[in-house]
């Protein structure tokens, strides 16, 4: 089960949120890796992969993409009231949707490639009451035991827990498969369940911007670094860099 | 009375992490700095914290904090927060820092600001500056919840400072609940590296997609060796499997701030820029004159890296010999 997300680049200066409407949404590459990991585990151990995401109607393309990769079905949490949700509300809503499914393992990307907070998986794990296993670069399941290699500053840690659990995988854990034509055709027939915030038991003021604890005050562009000199290499490029290093007294 | 600001101190490589000391420097500048240190640590760890501005240290040396991830630490910190209610608490944007904050937010039903580059306390609240979307934006944010404001701080945002405080340690009891022993850290594997660490190196030589393969990183290693620096990489090079993740610099990798940063065959995606753009000098070698990285460079060569880098190495050796 994966909170898929989108890749966009602009922040709207009025809402102070990432511009999402009218922007093409695709499956976040980080989430695609999570889907891939789910598929590999079910291919080995059996079971099904359910994609779970929260987002505007434009994300349907990304959901279809994950279904085309091979996910069994999908859950789309779709509600205008959710716009502007902070990490905690996002985690509560996702956890509530996950609780409506049967699961042994929740797989998330460590962080979306747009908002980059990296704390949603840990929050979801808390609300589900399952062990949070984060920054995984390798996942092994044996019976009800799950072991991951977790990235660390010095290398990696071998971390173990008992299922059900939540794993947040790091980027580069695998190379996600490309959907094949057969998968794309099959995806069109697969079920996408849609939940509103109310379906999951949330009042409008508990989620979205109204329920957010973090408030963005200002959005600005930082002072741009002054671009320095750039010259085309005419056979002396290496020497010119050495001259520059001498100029700044590094050598 | 000055506002109290807590710092969650971490141990890595058998010493207090530099980011912990950076946060203490900022915390002592803004208010009264105190630290929490959980789990086994070298004997001088508390002294190091006091020397860098911690006027009080909450300490528990129990191995549960080392052997079981996240849950025991979050439980202890949550208890201390509820008892003492400091104005703000700082965590490093590290693996364990982010995990503990995630758990605290959920448990205490509060918000957190992540990727904080700077902050100030204002009218009992906090105002944080965040370089968003790979530092192409600079936003300010605040937290509306009552109670302690949780901030996750980017490494290298502040300079560590010596700020001697009398040693004041308050021992706190270890957690006892079995429920907190769910995420078992069985083995810590240290991946050996040569030369200076990326975070500590004064010179960093990084390669990207333009390197075209694993073997070619050898010339970057040679350049780094000549200059006494470390080798880094962009996410493109890591995702391609040429170099390990430990070498990745950028939003989802390490943040570095060396005196000189070489971006070799790196286009300068926002993902990468956010991890290195505060370097003192940036030198770029790229065959594409339109690559965004040139906008951030102090000096750039538009050319073939496989010609420029070997010539540079040779030139450096020659000048050193002279």
Layout of helices and strands:
The complex is a heterodimer of chains A (251) and B (322).
Chain A: E1 3-4, H1 29-45, E2 50-54, H2 60-69, E3 73-77, H3 87-99, E4 105-109, H4 120-128, E5 132-142, E6 145-151, E7 155-162, E8 165-169, H5 181-187, E9 192-195, H6 208-211, E10 214-220, E11 229-232, H7 237-247
Helix pairs in contact in A: 2-5, 3-4
Chain B: E1 4-8, E2 11-12, E3 15-16, H1 18-30, E4 32-38, H2 45-51, E5 56-60, H3 64-67, H4 71-84, E6 88-92, H5 95-108, E7 112-116, E8 118-122, E9 125-132, E10 137-143, E11 149-153, E12 169-171, E13 184-190, E14 203-207, H6 217-227, E15 230-233, H7 235-239, E16 260-264, H8 270-273, E17 281-286, E18 299-302, H9 305-321
Parallel strand pairs in B: 1-4, 1-6, 4-5, 5-12, 6-11, 7-11, 14-15, 14-16, 16-17, 17-18
Antiparallel strand pairs in B: 2-3, 8-9, 9-10
Structural description of this entry:
The complex is a heterodimer of chains A (251) and B (322). With 251 residues, chain A is α/β, with parallel strands linked by helices. Chain A has a single domain (3-211), classed as HUPs (Rossmann fold). Helix content of chain A is 28%, strand content 25%. Chain A is built from seven helices and eleven strands. Chain A has a five-stranded mixed β-sheet. A four-stranded parallel β-sheet of chain A has the order 1-2-3-9, sandwiched between helices. In chain A, a hairpin with a 3-residue loop joins strand 6 and strand 7. Chain B is an alpha/beta fold and 322 residues long. Chain B is built from nine helices and 18 strands. Chain B has a seven-stranded parallel β-sheet, sandwiched between helices. A five-stranded parallel β-sheet of chain B has the order 15-14-16-17-18. The mean pLDDT of chain B is 92. Chains A and B meet through helix 3, helix 4, strand 5, strand 6 and strand 7 of A and helix 5, strand 7, strand 9, strand 10 and strand 13 of B.
């Amino acid at each position: 089960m994966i909170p898929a997300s989108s890749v966009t680049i602009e922040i709207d200066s009025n809402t102070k949120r990432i511009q999402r409407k009218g922007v093409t949404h695709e499956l976040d590459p980080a989430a695609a890796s999570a889907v891939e990991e789910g598929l590999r585990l079910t291919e080995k151990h059996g079971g099904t992969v359910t994609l779970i995401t929260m987002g505007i109607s434009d994300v349907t393309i990304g959901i279809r993409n994950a279904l085309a990769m091979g996910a069994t079905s999908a859950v789309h949490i779709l509600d205008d009231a959710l716009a502007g949700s902070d990490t905690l509300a996002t985690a509560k809503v996702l956890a509530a949707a996950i609780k409506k499914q049967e699961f042994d393992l929740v797989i998330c990307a460590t962080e979306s490639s747009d908002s980059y907070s990296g704390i949603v998986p840990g929050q979801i794990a808390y609300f589900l009451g399952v062990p949070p296993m984060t920054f995984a670069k390798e996942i092994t399941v044996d019976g009800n035991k799950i072991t991951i290699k977790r990235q660390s500053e010095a290398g990696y840690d071998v971390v173990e827990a008992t299922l059900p659990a939540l794993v947040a995988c790091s980027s580069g854990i695998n190379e996600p498969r490309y959907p094949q034509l057969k998968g794309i055709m099959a995806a069109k027939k697969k079920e996408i369940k849609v939940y509103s915030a109310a379906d999951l038991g949330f009042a409008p003021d508990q989620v979205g911007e109204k329920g957010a604890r973090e408030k963005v005050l200002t959005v600005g562009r930082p002072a741009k670094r002054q671009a320095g000199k750039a010259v085309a290499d005419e056979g002396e490029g290496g020497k010119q860099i050495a001259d520059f290093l001498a100029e700044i007294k590094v050598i | 009375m000055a506002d109290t600001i807590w710092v969650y101190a971490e141990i890595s490589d058998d010493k207090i992490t530099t980011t912990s000391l950076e946060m203490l420097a900022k915390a002592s500048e803004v208010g009264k700095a105190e630290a929490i240190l959980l789990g086994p640590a070298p004997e001088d760890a508390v002294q190091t914290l006091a020397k860098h501005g911690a006027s009080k240290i909450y300490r528990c040396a129990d191995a549960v904090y080392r052997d079981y991830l996240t849950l025991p630490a979050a439980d202890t910190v949550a208890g201390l927060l509820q008892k003492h209610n400091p104005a703000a608490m700082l965590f490093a944007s590290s693996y364990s820092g982010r995990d503990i904050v995630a758990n605290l937010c959920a448990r205490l039903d509060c918000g957190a600001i992540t990727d904080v580059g700077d902050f100030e306390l204002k009218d009992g609240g906090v105002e944080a500056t965040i370089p968003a979307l790979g530092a192409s934006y600079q936003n300010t944010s605040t937290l509306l919840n009552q109670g302690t404001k949780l901030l996750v701080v980017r490494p290298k945002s502040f300079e560590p400072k010596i700020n001697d405080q009398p040693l004041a340690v308050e021992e706190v009891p270890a957690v006892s609940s079995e429920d907190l022993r769910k995420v078992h850290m069985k083995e810590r594997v240290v991946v050996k590296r040569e030369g200076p660490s990326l975070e500590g190196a004064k010179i960093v030589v990084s390669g990207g997609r333009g390197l075209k393969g694993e073997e070619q990183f050898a010339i970057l290693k040679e350049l780094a060796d000549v200059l006494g620096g470390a080798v880094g990489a962009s996410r493109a090079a890591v995702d391609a499997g040429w170099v390990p993740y430990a070498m990745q610099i950028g939003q989802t990798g390490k943040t570095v701030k060396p005196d000189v940063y070489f971006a070799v065959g790196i286009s300068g995606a926002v993902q990468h820029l956010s991890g290195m753009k505060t370097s003192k000098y940036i030198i770029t070698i790229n065959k594409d004159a339109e690559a965004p990285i040139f906008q951030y460079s102090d000096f750039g060569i538009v050319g073939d890296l496989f010609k420029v880098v070997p010539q540079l190495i040779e030139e450096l050796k020659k000048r050193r010999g002279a």
